[in-house]
Amino acid sequence: MAKPLRAALAAALLMCLCGAAAADERESTRLTYLAGTCNACHGSSITIPALAGRPAPETAAALRAWRDGSRVNPIMNAVAGGLDDDAIDGLADLFAHAEPIAGEARP
Amino acid sequence: MNLDRRRLLKVAGGAGAGLLAAPTLLRAQIRPKVVIVGGGPAGATVALTLAQAHPDAFEITLVEENELYTTCFGSNMYLAGLRDFESLRHSYSGLADFGIEVIHERALLANRSEKVITLISRTRLDYDRLVVAPGVDLLYEQVPGYNPQAAKLMPHAWKAGPQTRLLRQQLDAVKDGEAVVIVAPPDPYKCPPGPYERASMMAHALKSSGRGGARIVILDAKEKFSKQALFMEGWQALYPGMIEWLPPSVHGGIELVDPVTKTVATDLDLFTGTLVNIIPAQRAGVTAREWDLADPETGWCPVDPETMRSALDEAVFVIGDAAAAGDMPKSAFSANSQARVAAMAIAADLLGAPRIEPFLFNTCWSRIGAEDAVKVGGRYMPKEGKITSVASFVSAPGEDAAVRRRAVGESDDWYRSIVAEMFGPGAA
Where would you find the membrane-spanning parts of this chain (chain A) (predicted)? Predict the structure, then answer.
């Protein structure tokens, strides 16, 4: 009785772990993909602020302010409106750890 | 003895190395093949995105006729003398650093059931996924009297390159008090605000060189156009009396154009210009049409809005101007955004990468004056089987000069960014 139960638990745990790994992979793929949209404008910054190296809380707060409209920038309001909380936090973290692109102005 | 021993060791070493290398070699041999036809903002972006996101995972071949790409975006600023021609031209050589093979040839035939295309040199390229990004073709014959030969006298300059230079030469030859005629196309076409940005940049070139008495007449095929209020306001402020826009309800339609006398006959009147710029109606590039990827009725290629996959072939993706992309305008920004969507779908198809919902975005900046740019754009999502606008924005009339000046800087940043996404970080 105990043995099959333990096996079932182990199997369930394994499924959980695999599920979590798949979710992680999905999320990291999604963030890399979304970051491409950011880089379409922020990739070579003089006027448009650079993102690489910017502290994550700063980027996340700005994206949330654009999403809820408390900060106004027509392009950023339209972009941020399409981002969920996980995307905002994930992108902020990703850019905080990104190497600045050569020749790019520092934030 | 010694020599034999050394040779033996060498052979053994070689064999050993061979054994070790075998799995890699095996993997290399079974790398899925992605062939991309067309090296513009759509095709070049999908090549580089795949190569950067999945190093060495694909065998990527980009087929593009031209060795140097001349961006159509930014080319109106060259007319105005705000950019030099060389700054619009970019080499594909940086793509080799990412393992992308670039073949400068014309793709001729596709055998889609066998998944192989043939180039003009008879080189055959087989593929697991094919990306078709040929841009637009110009429907010369829809402007009576216009044809590729006539374009040598009355340029379209809607494909950047020699035509762009010809238009600039003709603009330079316009004297004060003379006329310029622009024939603007019906929807849909590449770069909706382009003809009006072009009129603005021509007026800037003329006025800033003591030719403010020249006149520009736009004979449009449409009753309204992109960012109309913004352009009209800017023309009034910066080039008063220089630019006149006539919709078909006023000119009554183009009857005939004559490249020898540089005359455009409409129902209303005859318009003669020192420079006549004819921008004809457009449809998907010939490659997409000859490969039966376009809807013969509309001339554009139907795609799945989730992935940019051709609605007619699951192994083919159509991105950029040639695609029927719902509410998205045909722009370099849209093409670049669609390329990322296609890259994700290709990685999901061939590598089992996760399928991600598309994030489609566009911004079109247009220059009205040297220090005055406006923008329009939005975010798009698949809805009810088509790419649908879910958020949009457009510059406001009467905006502060600082906002407009900043938009000039934004568009310059975007230019460098997209060029880096097409040709690699060194290109910008």
Answer: none
Kindly state whether residue A11 falls inside one of the protein's structural domains. Answer: no
For chain B, say whether A101 makes contact (Cβ under 8 Å): yes
Q: Is residue A18 part of a domain?
A: no
Q: Closest Cα of chain A to B390: distance in Å?
A: 9
Q: How many residues does chain A have?
A: 107
Distance from the first to the final alpha carbon of chain A: 62
Q: How many domains does chain A have?
A: 1
* For B347, nearest residue in chain A (alpha carbons): A29
DSSP string spanning B197-250?
Answer: HHHHHHHHHHHTTT-TT-EEEEEESSSS-TTHHHHHHHHHHHSTTTEEEE-HHH
* Minimum distance, in Å, between the CA of residue B204 and any CA atom of chain A: 23
Query: Does the beta carbon of A73 lie under 8 angstroms from any beta carbon of chain B?
Result: no
Cis peptide bond N-terminal to B188, omega within 30:
yes
How far apart (Å, rounded) are the C-alpha atoms in residues B102 and B239?
45
Contacts for A26 with CB less than 8 Å, ≥ 6 apart: B354, B356
Residue B100 to residue B78: CA distance in whole angstroms = 30
Domains and their CATH numbers in chain B: 30-138+284-358 (3.50.50.60), 147-278 (3.50.50.60)
Cβ contact (<8 Å) for A37 and B340? yes
| ipTM > 0.90 for the complex | no
Residue A45, chain B, CB below 8 Å: the answer is yes
Q: Does residue B22 register a pLDDT over 90?
A: no
Strands B124-126 and B270-272: unpaired
In a domain, A69, yes or no: yes
pLDDT tens readout for residues B320-361: 999 999 999 999 999 999 999 999 999 999 999 999 999 999
**Which residue in B340, B375, B414 is closest to A33 by CB distance?**
B340
B352 close contact with A: CB closer than 8 A:
no
DSSP state string for B88-155: GEEESGGGGGGT-EEE-S-EEEEETTTTEEEETT--EEE-SEEEE---EEE-GGGSTT--TTGGGTS-
Dist. CA B108–CA B134, nearest whole Å: 12
CATH code: domain of residue A65: 1.10.760.10
Domain with A102, as residue range(s), is 26-107
Closest CA to B156 of B288, B281, B332: B281
Q: Is B380 on the interface with A (CB under 8 A)?
A: no
